[in-house]
Amino acid sequence: MPLPDTDEMIQARWGKREWAFYNWANDNTKALEDTLKIDAKWNALDLLLQKRWPRKKDREDYYAWSREWNGRFMLRMSYKWSPQEFIDKVLVTNFLEAEGSVNLWWAMDTYNLSSIPIGHAKFGGVESYYAFKPGHRFLKPDRNESGPSVLGTSILAMTVQFTKPRALSIAGNSSGSYGSSSSGSKASSVLSQPAKPASRTRASTGSGQQADPVEVARSEVDPNHFVFAQLGLLYVYGGDYEYAKGWGIDPLEQGPWWRNDLVVVVRLDHKGNHGAVYVLYHPNSSIEVDDDSDGEELAPEAKYHVPGRLHPRCNDGFLLAKIANNLKELGHFNKEFHFLPITKTASTIHRAQLFENKEHELTIGPALAMVKRAA
């Protein structure tokens, strides 16, 4: 099934006849609603249309137009957007361009979105599978900056407060070596090994030794320019990991999946291009989602799940961690990934703002006009 057309795409095909139907329907909204009342005649709509279009052929054309135009919402809601389609949509979005980002948010709000697999990882003594449900309205700014070039809350900025100086590892034993491998899962997708982050002098552990991946991830973060777009809410698989690993995708589809109130975000550079993917927990943000558990009883451990912890049994946590070098690394459960903690300290979230540089080009950055820069 092809991707449903937007309103603009539908209207671009219209001629004078279709615009006449559209204008008449807008001018006669009350009369059209009256035809749907319980006490209305069974053919009330046709009688109403006969007054405007006596010819049967004209009314048949109206019905054809109405089915497409008024049925567009149901068609979009029933469209199953695959994980790869979602990732591809984000990949082609330049968040500096209003049209592109608005189209992405519109699609996220409209289509029936699948959960996006991230893969499986071990952190805090627990190994499990992770996925996220797309969304872009979870986090709210601590500082409500305003102005003509200040963006909405789907794109935000953060002044990152490091728990310790970046010369020290904050989680030296968090997840083992940083790489990628295919598990014993029977999931159909085959993944290539992602490139490791480029080593930097400041993250080097010594001559001839490989840099600590956590320190590399931390060294990539500019504490005064961490602009990101919200992508979704993180979920952890609550079933038996070893069982799911042996049987493949079926146990994962059955669940259970538990939310942990961490938000998946993609970092943006000055030009609005997407980069690395992170998970973020912010204590001051209120996460509100529809509960579709259908009354299913939660496991005892899930009832006491600490918000912000990846899994109820995790013995460690963080407030910001890197999970992928880019969006292309997402989308498959048989991919091993690692949580690379950036900080355990709460940071301040601001709005993002568009600026004009010396070359009169638009750039994106934090709206920090009245806020001290991070130390």
Automatic annotation (TrEMBL):
It comes from the Eukaryota. This is Uncharacterized protein. Residues 201-210 have a biased composition (Polar residues). It comes from Fusarium gaditjirri. Residues 178-192 have a biased composition (Low complexity). Residues 178-216 are annotated as: Disordered. The lineage of its organism: Eukaryota, Fungi, Dikarya, Ascomycota, Pezizomycotina.
